[in-house]
Amino acid sequence: MNFKLADLHNHLNQLKELENTSYYEFLRVSSTSAGLYRLNKGEKDKQQPHTEDEIYLIIEGKASFQNGNETAEISKGDILFVEANKEHRFYNVTEDLTTLVFFSPAEHSNK
Predict the structure, then answer these.
(1) CB 47 within 8 A of CB 99
(2) Distance from C-alpha of 43 to C-alpha of 9, rounded to nearest angstrom
């Protein structure tokens, strides 16, 4: 499979307009899933802890990130790891934020 980041951006932008969603899952197999997650400047991150481990790759933007009791300033190129069931969120989004998100196993597999 081959994915073009520009195509994923375009699809997510359409979903955001039509369905008011910030997440577009573009890959799902039993061992992993991947998606594009976008928060606009000032937008609140409403996600809840997931039952699977996650890795975020920050494609663009700037924000703060809370991972359990730890916080960090994040920007393009940063990679974040979140353990399953751990409270986490982006906040203080100062520039439109786009991340690649990888779940292992696939998101919601452990529910």
Answers:
(1) no
(2) 17
How does DSSP assign the chain, residue by residue? ----HHHHHHHHHHHHHHH--SEEEEEEETTEEEEEEEE-TTPPP-----SSEEEEEEEEEEEEEEETTEEEEEETT-EEEE-TT--EEEEEEEEEEEEEEEEES-TTTT-
Of the candidates 86, 100, 90, the residue with the CA atom closest to the CA atom of residue 66: 90
Residue closest to 36 by CA, chosen among 24, 28, 21, 44 = 24
pLDDT digits (tens, 9 = 90+) for 72-84: 999 999 999 999 9
The CA distance from 54 to 67, in Å, is: 11
For residues 53 and 51, give the distance between their C-alpha atoms in angstroms, rounded to a whole number: 7
Kindly report the pTM of this predicted structure: 0.91
